[in-house]
Protein 1
Amino acid sequence: MTLVLSRVTARFADEKKNSTPTLKDISFSLPTGSFMSIIGPSGAGKSTLMRVILGLMEPTSGEVVRNFSRPAMVFQNYALFPWLSALDNVAFGLRMDGAGAHERERVAREKLREVGLERFESHYPAALSGGQRQRVGLARALAISPDFLIMDEPFSNLDTITSEALKADLLKIWRTYGMTILMVNHLIPDAIELSDQILVMGAHPGRVEKTISVDLTRPRDTRTAPFFKQVDLLTEDIRRTVSPS
Amino acid sequence: MVHSIAHSQTRAWHHHHAERHRRAWVLMAGVVAVAAILIALGFFGMVTWSVLGNAIFHTTYRLVLAYAVALALGVTIALLVGWSPLGDYLFPIFDVLQNLPSFALIPLFIYFLGYTNQMIIFFAVSSIIWPILFAVLTAIKSAHNDLNDAATIFGARGWKRIPYYLAPLSYPAILTGSIVGIAIGWEAVIGAEIITNISGFGAFIKGADVTGISQGAIAGMLAILVIVFVVNRLVWAPLLAESAKRYAE
């Protein structure tokens, strides 16, 4: 298992002890090499959960077992460093690791080529479209050869065509590198298309409602009847779970 | 010009900024032309140009030196405070110190440093430093959480966080803080020169009385206006434009 959470509760520092925590009794495990999506309404604490998993925030109680050494993250709002070119953004993690300039540039160029942005290496983030920025964010994550990749709603700010292209690239990259991926997703069809498992969260407090296995064989054709049926069933299941009334 | 469909630096943007730049130079050329005509007509006949030039030189070099020291100190302190977990406790202390009226502290500076060049420079440092320090601290504290997290996840931790993340993050704030700081610096240097009367433009105009200001004072103010304008157009405007281009959302 890459990740195991056991009864994790998290509360922000300025929250009172007897108030509702942001996350309550979160327990789940993430098999190595698998792709898991997290779905939930606003206020479910999905982003907080990501931060707890990455160690950016300490849980108030519970245990987080991390069997990964090189985590990386792709952000909803890209989080590219505006003062660095696309190439330097991708090379940032390598630079912090102490890699030499030649090696950094070689790897960064290779990753930009993988995401189709080899012609934009000297562009700054302000000069890139949303889709291009997200690809740079993905290349930056891949450049450090992560064993665990977290993606926080990576397609939510992109148009449909760009999202479809990026999803296809992501699946190719996942198959190539075999890394474990945990993605916060706001679209059920995307979660079904991409994931082996879907974690459904409820809100106020953030909690795990259920874990659903997606049993469709890969590659998944999103235009087939079994896929649509699975989307319908899971959508209804998730809707009943999150809003039982 | 970068060629990208998403690039905000379109031809229209460049044309607009070039037009603004051109208008500023035309306006200043007009001011200089009017001054030249007045000189030719003998309006500034009473001015001893070498004395005035020397006075402005002293004021300017004190300001430049004070700015360099204030920049180094202000940025260093702000980066260290912004990086440190204790930063939130130091912010209110800086807030109080910054609100002390600077000229009310001049007797202290005179007591320790006398009526000297060093006194004027250190006094100016104590005024210039605050806009720079607060601009940088505010930029660090208001950085988007995602950017902070990205820096941490990709390895900008510990001491590395300062040169590889906090310093470049603060660059636009250093620029705007510097522009405000230097404006305050002119005031501080000239004010201290008026009080100490040792040299500089402040000492030069000290003789101005309520019946009117001397031709020398007017000539000096015009000269300082030209210096401020040229530095603004040749140094700050290009840096601000480049910063706006890179740091745009």
Protein 2
Amino acid sequence: MATAGPSLALAAAVLLAAHAAAARDLRDLYFGEALYYAYQERYFDALERLDTEIAQHYGVDEPKLDSLQFHIGRAEFSVGDFELDYRMHQRAGRAIRAVLEANVEDPVRNEAAFRLARILFQKEQPRDALQALARIHGEIPEAIRDDLEFLRANVYLALGQPGDAVPVLQGLQGSKSLQGFAQYNLGIALLQQGKTAEAVAQLGRAGEVSGDDAPLLAIRDKSNLVLGTLFFEDSAFGSAQSTLDRVRLQGPFSNQALLRAGWADASAQRFERALVPWSLLAERDPTDAAVQEALLALPYAYSKQGVHGRAALLYGRAVEAYAHELEKIDASLRSIREGEFLKDLVREEIRQDKDWVIRLRSLEGAPETFYLASLMASHDFQTALQNYLDLEDLRKRLVSWQRSLEAFEELVSLRRHYYEPLLPQVDAEFRKLDAQMRLRLEQREHLDRRLQHLLVDPRPELLATSDEQQASARIGALESALEGRSDEEAAALRARTGRLKGLLRWDLETHYHERLTQAHRHLAELNQQIDALNQRYQSFVRTRQAATHSYVGYEEPIRRLRAHVVAAQERLGVLMEAQGRVLESVANEELKLRRERLEAYQNQARFAFADSYDRAAKAQAQAQ
Amino acid sequence: MCVGRASRTHAWNETPPVSYPPISHPALRAALALVLLLAVGDCARPARAESKAESKAKMQSLDEQVQDIKSDVLGIATQLDRLEERLLYPSNTEVAVFVSVAEGETFRLDSVQIQIDGEAVARHIYSFKELEALQKGGVQRLYTGNIQTGDHRLDVHVAGKSGASDVNASQTFGFRKEAGPKLVGITLAGGGSSIELGGW
């Protein structure tokens, strides 16, 4: 989780509500986008999206009004999940510990403790995982109850405490989501406890669980394989054989099962029956260790039946096959020394395929990858390989970002060259328009104030038309001219101006309310115009600001980012080299072991070939 | 040999396996003495065990460094995202179109094409993984671009397959761009034949 500590308390507080929200109640599209990447196992992209979104959420003035608020708890936990999936245990662990230390409700704390325990278990720290589980008390979210108990049982098993694991696993036998797994692990716990008879019965149940999804079928096969092996070691060869027969011919445990089924028959001296599984196995991919053993076991069965000629032939074939495999291993070792191995691992066309590890076997001109599938059985190799692939992915991203930064710089420069000569002229014109606009706005304010005043202090003359104002001015002028005169003509004129004045006043008084209403209507119309003008004004201001913002203030962030990218590239280069060396070294070690084993097989096959040849020749001589 | 299981996947073989005694027939054991010696070599030779522990510590240290650099690169990605958004999609002109699939829909979505104001701006052809991510509730950002404030027209065309029949659906929507960023959500339902505009 990328967000600061205080946010965790808030996140935790809303966790329950958020968990209740299904994916379809999505209110934040960017959170949905992060899920879209995560569902495709593109965890870097998912984290990038969600980190950005959460940072923005806590950066807004009122996070409670932000659309992510509805999902914030789930988003915070999703970050932790994605970090785990992206193998960033440290960051995920830190974030979860922060939740544990916050003042949160039981279900939230318990879920966090469960996640922490799972991380610690994955990191092979079962004792710490148990301590994390010990922090769980009170209400536990239903969604994690079975998984939590299953984890607890696995931790006990990893600590060598099968007696503690057994009752926990017994309580999970009805769990639908753990069907097969709970049964199998209970069998193993009983076995570790020394209760072999109970373990056998339990593994028998695990080997018969119903269902048809791939993991369930695989666990069923594994149960039957282990059970068959137990029977075999107890010399119950018949039971071993029938149990091993239940392992599917196409599953991941098929080769091992065929090999052991053959040994079960051979141990019961039924060599003719051992030929069936071993013949089948001997035709499979010769890079598989079980197949390599079958190449030797098959002629052994023929020789035990006294068919020495056929045995000699097959021993000869085995010698050839081992020689061929040794050549492949030598080519692999040579290619690793020459650095080709790492190049092939990151070939894009191979990684596009979900079965890429299998495809590597048949990659043309890349003998170093023939044994990759068998190397994948090593946990160390898997971790090193995954890290190497992640680093390669980061390397490509950094290269691409460096190009993006160059493009951004060019874009900023182009914008600067375009806008800088234009903007001073635009600004000058804008200032003139702005001054005119402000004047008009002041006039409008003045009119508004005057109309408001008229409501409490009516002054009809203020609503006079321009004709009326002119007439009033002329009457006023006539009255001034008549001042000081006392003749009859003046008196008659005064009477006339008085009538005209009265007439004017009559009109003003009688039309006052109508005119006031009309003035208000006109002002309202003016307000509409003013609003439209304001909108255009604001739009212009935004566009003007955007023009500046489109090229100002980017140099420093781009420079800083470029420095970060370069520094990361340097560190990445060193790390990739170190990780690559580890990968090569693990591959080298594993291949050398395979080589030594193959040499031992080859020697055995040579001796057996000579022996069978002699026996066949002797038998032929006796027959003649 | 016990198996662990992650909460979301049946990744039971992720747990470090407890090794089970290897099986070989007694007749082969003598001949394969060398092999077995190598197989148990880790216990038989302390020097080798020590180097194994060193190698483990080295791998752990490398793993931690890998985690550190992932964290750093994620930080750069976040900063770059913000810079890109500021530089290329300023909020007063930004528009983003998102695509989601309604709950329970199982039709095969082949492609989505969108036009804004009559101009084709995005077309996407879906991979199986992408379709699955949409069906699980993920939301795809199909397009991010810039438009002026005001009223606009969005044309959406969807192609796919529902059962045995082809799906070809088109729909036109109007939307208004205000001063802030505009997010447009399209939800596909009714076996792909119904295209709805979300209210984001």
